[in-house]
C-alpha cells in the first residue's frame, strides 16, 4: 500500500461525531447523558402499536416504494396543510427519507457542483459540514453569536458571492435554540430571491417552539419553487431510532433529491413509515402536550444550570440549552465535556466543535432536556454540588 491516506481528503478531519464520542463516554462512566439529543421515554403507545401492527400485517416488511408509502406521503401533505396551510401533491412533491439526515445528504449531493458555496448558520449541526464536503462544495459560516444568537442579515448579504448556490438553514436551531422571527425569515427569503439561491431548510424541531412561531421558509413569497423543506418524525414523536424523515418541495426539486436518495438507501424503515403516517394524524392536543412538557423541562434544567453557576442562554425552541462555562472554569468546552463525567457523572456536548471559527464557541456547552424530570433534577444537583457548593 502506498502512503496515500485511506480516507479521502473531503472527509479528512471529520473523525467520529461528537454525539458518538459523548454517548460512549456516558455509557463507560455510567453518567447521566444530557449530550446526544434522544428522549429517555418513547413516544405514544398508540404509535408504537401502529408499528407492531404494520410488522404483523406484513406492511412494509419488503421494500416500500422509492418515494415512500402512499399513506405516509399523504399524511405528510396533510400535515403541511394543517399546520401551515401549504398544499403539496403527495405523488410528486413529497419524498420519504431515512431521517432528516438522509434528506440533507441527498439534497446536498443532488443540488451542488464542486466549487459551489453553501451558507449555513454556525454553529452547524454536524452532518452539514460532512454532506457539503462529500458534495465537493464549500461551507461558508454565518456565525450566530451569544447571547441571543440572532443572524446578522447584513453579514449574510456580504457572504453571498457568485458561487453561492444554497442557503442551508436550520430553525429552530440546534444547538443554540434560536428561532427565526417572521421579519428575519422574510429578509432571508428576499435575499434568496434577489440572488436566485436555492434554500434547504432543516425543520426537525418545528413542533418545539416555546417563544415565537415556526415559519417554514417555503411559505414565503418567491420561495415555493426554490426551497427544499426537510423534517422528520424522530423529534416530534420521540422515536429517534426509527429514522423516518421527509422532503416537501416542488416536483423538480423532489425529483432531483430523489435521484440522489435512491442511490443512498433506496428505501428504509418500511413498517415505521405506516406508523408515522398514523402519528401525523394525532390531534392537536398531542402536539401541544409534547411542547408543554418540554417547556417545563426546559425551565427546570435552565434553573438548575443557572444555580450551578453556568451562564444560561434560554432557548426559544429545540430541546437543547446552550450554556457558557466561562464563569466556572478557564478550560475550553471540549476539555470540560471530556472531564465532566468523571467529575460529577453528567455528560454534555461542546458546541465548540460545531464552529469553523475556532474561538467563537470556545466556552459553549450544550445540555439536552428531553429526559425525565427526575433525571434532570438529579443532573442539576450533581452539577450544583460540583461547581457551586
Ligand atoms: N437536523 C438537526 C438540526 C438535528 O438536530 C437532527 C437530529 N435529530 C437531524 C437533522 C437528524 O434528524 P434524523 O434523526 O431524522 O436523521
Ligand atoms: N440530533 C441529535 C443531537 O443533536 C443527535 C443525532 C446524532 O447523533 N447524529 O444531539
UniProtKB/TrEMBL annotation:
Transmembrane segments: none
Protein name, per record: Pyridoxal phosphate-dependent aminotransferase
GO MF entries: transaminase activity
Residue intervals of the Aminotransferase class I/classII large domain: 32-382
Domain of life: Bacteria
InterPro entries the record matches: Aminotransferase_I/II_large, Kynurenine-oxoglutarate_AT, PyrdxlP-dep_Trfase, PyrdxlP-dep_Trfase_major, PyrdxlP-dep_Trfase_small
Keyword Transferase: yes
UniProt KW keywords: Aminotransferase, Pyridoxal phosphate, Transferase
Cofactors that this protein relies on: pyridoxal 5'-phosphate
One Pfam family in the UniProt entry: Aminotran_1_2
The keyword Transferase appears for this protein: yes
Amino acid at each position: 500500500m502506498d502512503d496515500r491516506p485511506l480516507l479521502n481528503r473531503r472527509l479528512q478531519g471529520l473523525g467520529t461525531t461528537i454525539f458518538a464520542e459523548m454517548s460512549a463516554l456516558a455509557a463507560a462512566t455510567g453518567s447521566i447523558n444530557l449530550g446526544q439529543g434522544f428522549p429517555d421515554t418513547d413516544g405514544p403507545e398508540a404509535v408504537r402499536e401502529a408499528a407492531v401492527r404494520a410488522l404483523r400485517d406484513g406492511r412494509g416488511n419488503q421494500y416500500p416504494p422509492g418515494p415512500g408509502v402512499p399513506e405516509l406521503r399523504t399524511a405528510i401533505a396533510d400535515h403541511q396543510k394543517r399546520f401551515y396551510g401549504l398544499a403539496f401533491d403527495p405523488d410528486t412533491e413529497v419524498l420519504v427519507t431515512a431521517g432528516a439526515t438522509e434528506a440533507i445528504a441527498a439534497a446536498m449531493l443532488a443540488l451542488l457542483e464542486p466549487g459551489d458555496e453553501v451558507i449555513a448558520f454556525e454553529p452547524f449541526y454536524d452532518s452539514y459540514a460532512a454532506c457539503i464536503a462529500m458534495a465537493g462544495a464549500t461551507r461558508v459560516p454565518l456565525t450566530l453569536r451569544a447571547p441571543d444568537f440572532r443572524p446578522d442579515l447584513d453579514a449574510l448579504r456580504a457572504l453571498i458571492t457568485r458561487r453561492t448556490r444554497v442557503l442551508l438553514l436550520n430553525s429552530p436551531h440546534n444547538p443554540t435554540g434560536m428561532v427565526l422571527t417572521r421579519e428575519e425569515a422574510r429578509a432571508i427569503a428576499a435575499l434568496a430571491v434577489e440572488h436566485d439561491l436555492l434554500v434547504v431548510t432543516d425543520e426537525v424541531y418545528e413542533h418545539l417552539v416555546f417563544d415565537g412561531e415556526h415559519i417554514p421558509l417555503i411559505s414565503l413569497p418567491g420561495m415555493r419553487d426554490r426551497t427544499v423543506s426537510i423534517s422528520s418524525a424522530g423529534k416530534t414523536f420521540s422515536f429517534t431510532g426509527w429514522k423516518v424523515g421527509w422532503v416537501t418541495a416542488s416536483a423538480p426539486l423532489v425529483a432531483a433529491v430523489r435521484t440522489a436518495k435512491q442511490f443512498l438507501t433506496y428505501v428504509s424503515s418500511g413498517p415505521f413509515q405506516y406508523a408515522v403516517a398514523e402519528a401525523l394524524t394525532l390531534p392537536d392536543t398531542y402536539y401541544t402536550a409534547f411542547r408543554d412538557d418540554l417547556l417545563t423541562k426546559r425551565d427546570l434544567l435552565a434553573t438548575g444550570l443557572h444555580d450551578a453557576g453556568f451562564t444560561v442562554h434560554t432557548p426559544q425552541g429545540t430541546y437543547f440549552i446552550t450554556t457558557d462555562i466561562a464563569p466556572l472554569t478557564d478550560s475550553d468546552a471540549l476539555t470540560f465535556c471530556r472531564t465532566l463525567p468523571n467529575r460529577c457523572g453528567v455528560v454534555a456536548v461542546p458546541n465548540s466543535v460545531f464552529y469553523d471559527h475556532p474561538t467563537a464557541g470556545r466556552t459553549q456547552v450544550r445540555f439536552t432536556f428531553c429526559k425525565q424530570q427526575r433525571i434532570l433534577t438529579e443532573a442539576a444537583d450533581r452539577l450544583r454540588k460540583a461547581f457551586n457548593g
